[in-house]
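Hi all, long-time lurker, first post. I run a small reading group and we've been trying to get comfortable going from sequence to structure in the token notation. Rather than ask abstract questions, I figured I'd post a concrete chain and ask someone more experienced to write out its structure so we can walk through it together at our next meeting. Sequence below, copied exactly:
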Amino acid sequence: MSQPHRHQHDDHIIRNLWQVMSAYRWRVVGALVFLILAKVASVSVPLVLKRIVDALSRPEQVAALPVFLLAGYALLRFSSTLFNELRDLLFSRVTQRTVASYALDVFIHLHALGARFHSQRRIGGLLPDIDRGTNGIGFLLGIGLFTLVPTLIEIGLVLAILGTRYSGWYTGIISVTFVMYTGFTILFTSRRTIFQRRVNRLDSSAKSRLADSLINYDAVKYFTNEALEANRFHDIMERWTGAAIDNQKALFILHVGQSAIIAIGVASVMLLAGQDVIAHQMTVGDLVLINAFMLQICLPLNALGFVYREAKDALVNAEKLFQLLRERPEIDEPDDLPPLQVSRAEVVFEHVSFHYDPARPILSDVSFRIPPGHTVAVVGGSGSGKSTLARLLLRFYDVSDGRIMIDGQDIRGVSTASLRKAIGVVPQDTVLFNDTIAYNIAYGRNGASPEDIAAAAKAAHVHDFIKSLPQQYETPVGERGVKLSGGEKQRIALARAMLKNPPILIFDEATSALDSRSERAIQIELDRLSADRTTLVIAHRLSTIIGADEILVLERGRIVERGTHAQLLLQGGVYANLWQLQRRAEKLEQSDLTT
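-- Answer (accepted) --
Happy to help. Here is the structure in token form:
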């Protein structure tokens, strides 16, 4: 990324944060007032200390202990701490609410992004980017803002006091030190940012590799590829280590350079002050005052360098998060689209074509109608476009040509939320949330009562199995439902669809992953669920769709045959060949079982 583009991104991030913070403007103003009071108290401490030292340095006045000055000194120190704590307390709501707001925005935005984005994203790399981004925003709002501003205020106050009370040499030396320190910090921090970006990129890559390997734990074990996975992860970590070491070297140069500039500045000021005391142009109290002010400036300068470095890192981290928020949904529909009005639940595909890439069409001129309460099944080889029909009906993607209608309404002209509420899906691969069985069934209808959940489970013939478990409906299903068998997961998916009670159903190869016994049992429930509902069945096993009102045969994205099971067998075409092949395979399977 070029330097001007980086500055534009940084400016965009800061402007965006400021807009969010403007909702809490009175808290921001209050926090700034406490900040200024804290710095005034902090700068006043050396002034009172000088008077105490001067008073105690005069032998004739030692007997009269400056009680009020000592009390004032203690009070000012306490006041500085108190005002800083009040500032942090007042501003904490701004920081935490803003961070939470961005985290929620990203969460909502990720769900709003289309299927194409989610098919390409790597969850292991995405989560660290979000985590670092929200942490970066928290830093920019909290420590960044309340270290940068008070440091500049403190330096300004000290320079004003020294300029009015002492030789211009003191102000000059401190100003030169500040300019040199700032210039050095900006120059070397910009160089170091390159290393920080590389470290972040490799860190995301490592997390992504780790997550991908653990998600595919079974495959790793099947092929005994633990060593291969370890070597791949080791390669990434080696590159990450190299980048982190380069980053640390750049940080070393930055720290040493900053410390050297501060040391030269302090030595110059103290040397000049020592000469003035010997020449009786200043008192010991003045020397103490200047020394205290130098310490007060040097510590914030170090802090300023730290904050600038960390702020640049935070901006780098926030970049990814804001890039994510700038991702546009593939289907960016207007907010004022009317809801789908379902009366008969008739589904029509009219000359539908679709492609991800124009050079590789997925569907070409597909037309069919599913009358209300009827079942249409789609069969075909892998890659023929069967599952794409379901995704288009759910509007995960928009058609390239043609249109899809429900009860005469083009689905592009109605709100996507209302469209998907009208459709129930029983997928091939049922992925469950890492929660209880009750939660996963109730996901079909928000706010469903325990009685409704149990009724849906009974309808899916899974209630007896659930009641036999020690925790019954409160049984955790594990990550992606790993604690349940394929048939049990499929029945829960079925119960979820029954609870939703939609007018339109999609069965996307819902039984293809099951054994023959489980398939037959589930198929009976699918037939009961689809009775009197408009149903699209994406089929793998032809035996499951014999009773469909119409069967479509897809090849390379085109409908090559259509008709009932009996009609297609009489035609002796593609469907008849598929039927014969599957019947032969089933007979071989049965003979293997009996021998």
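A couple of things your group might point at:
The domain at 347-422+502-594 is CATH 3.40.50.300 (Rossmann fold).
The first strand starts at residue 347 and ends at 357.
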